[in-house]
């Protein structure tokens, strides 16, 4: 029973990590109507920036983390300036394809610049797990979960309550209408990518803390995809619930169903949930009901 | 498009694929050159041509699904994989002739594609791209986690050579003719499909699905059909691939390969069969150059090792996709048509 509860708690915390990465998707979508397939690549670039500032440049954590976040923001800004500003008002297809192109472009660049070598990642959160009776909770996931919830509440307030947040929401509704209302579409999209890159870097810190870093870690971007869809692409608060549900479902499948069938069903459960969501309720749990059906 | 003043006087002439005598000549010359290729060029080029023809089948299928019907498909490599696995399982376990396994591979891939096409009836845009990505992951999962006696698991399957009347298609040249025959049939079929009522329904749905529905087109069925046809082509291409490489493994059909196929149709031009062929030609050449140059660079920059080819391919193709979407979203065929018509009406601007 203790193990069962422990599995549920760990699953929920992993789910919250997915939520944080998925928050990158949602923030970018929420402020620019662009669905960023390259989110996992942003996570890995964030990871390499953190690695560079701590392990290579030898800065202390207190200095390197803020510097890494600023650098990540600059990378996000650069990507937006180079690729996305020119596509404002273009079709969904162009936007999707550009981010798909970015996905393989960034993957290749990371490989070319950093190579396939496995690198140690700095220990950002204490390695010692938290013991609750017989239960054992990884510290990085616990702290990450708290950060995720704080970030979700903060961003949710920002996008739903503040004036500038609502402006960005208008951009997500329609580029042309938003710009004719005097809202800076360019500024909104730039802000979204900076924020998305920063969130991805925080995600990388939680995910990789004390582990090893290779370019394969970007797979977390695809693991987070179902969470974003489950919550509904516009809802930041909903990500918490969606992440917890998917995390628990995955953890329980991995621990109880996989030994029975002798496979790794756990890794594919999120996608099965995603397919079901897309078929039954394409707007997700809390998304806007704007999906055009035919 | 025809210049003003020239218009078809009958339905038959409107539907014609080959419109002028010069086009007949060009087609005959092109086919003759291809058929004689094994006598004209070295084995290395024949190997490249083999890859190009197989990619052409798959890219033409993607062109019908994405370029004509407007359904974003990021799972073409998975559909190809379904075809490749079907062909290799049938060939290695039941010993069926390739005359049967290739169409059956196409059919099984078409069925798999149709299942995901059904979701297109409810959702569109990038949501659809997401379900095709899910298809990609589910395919991987199925291959790796089903009992390894079924699909070989991570070991892959070895494929026996294609055989007909005691004649074995081994070696690049023999396979060249087999690939040539299948590719010619498939490409000719694609020209037929896109000018038929199905093809016109695809274009109508792509341009405006609400309007298409009002005109009496069954939009959901049309979208599912687009996936069915696109996946059929991918399955046939996958079967050819299985016979060419004589080995299938799950690593040959990843999301990256799907994106490479998308790059082909974007470069060539959306909504044009010839565009798909042009795109295949260009992207395959780029890939060949990287594969040849890459190892030389890898020698001087040693820490990268063998990954430089994969990395370089990703950087170049990712850059190509992004650049084309920003600068030339309609692809090279569109640019070619503009050049053609401005040459024709010179010195007038329009």
UniProtKB/TrEMBL annotation, chain B:
<dbReference type="InterPro" id="IPR043428">
    <property type="entry name" value="LivM-like"/>
</dbReference>
<feature type="transmembrane region" description="Helical">
    <location>
        <begin position="176"/>
        <end position="194"/>
    </location>
</feature>
<keyword id="KW-0812">Transmembrane</keyword>
<feature type="transmembrane region" description="Helical">
    <location>
        <begin position="21"/>
        <end position="39"/>
    </location>
</feature>
<keyword id="KW-1003">Cell membrane</keyword>
<feature type="transmembrane region" description="Helical">
    <location>
        <begin position="72"/>
        <end position="91"/>
    </location>
</feature>
<feature type="transmembrane region" description="Helical">
    <location>
        <begin position="224"/>
        <end position="244"/>
    </location>
</feature>
<keyword id="KW-1133">Transmembrane helix</keyword>
<dbReference type="InterPro" id="IPR001851">
    <property type="entry name" value="ABC_transp_permease"/>
</dbReference>
<feature type="transmembrane region" description="Helical">
    <location>
        <begin position="125"/>
        <end position="144"/>
    </location>
</feature>
<feature type="transmembrane region" description="Helical">
    <location>
        <begin position="97"/>
        <end position="118"/>
    </location>
</feature>
<feature type="transmembrane region" description="Helical">
    <location>
        <begin position="304"/>
        <end position="327"/>
    </location>
</feature>
<dbReference type="GO" id="GO:0015658">
    <property type="term" value="F:branched-chain amino acid transmembrane transporter activity"/>
</dbReference>
<feature type="transmembrane region" description="Helical">
    <location>
        <begin position="256"/>
        <end position="283"/>
    </location>
</feature>
<dbReference type="GO" id="GO:0005886">
    <property type="term" value="C:plasma membrane"/>
</dbReference>
<feature type="transmembrane region" description="Helical">
    <location>
        <begin position="45"/>
        <end position="65"/>
    </location>
</feature>
<keyword id="KW-0472">Membrane</keyword>
<dbReference type="Pfam" id="PF02653">
    <property type="entry name" value="BPD_transp_2"/>
</dbReference>
<protein>
    <submittedName>
        <fullName>Branched-chain amino acid ABC transporter permease</fullName>
    </submittedName>
</protein>
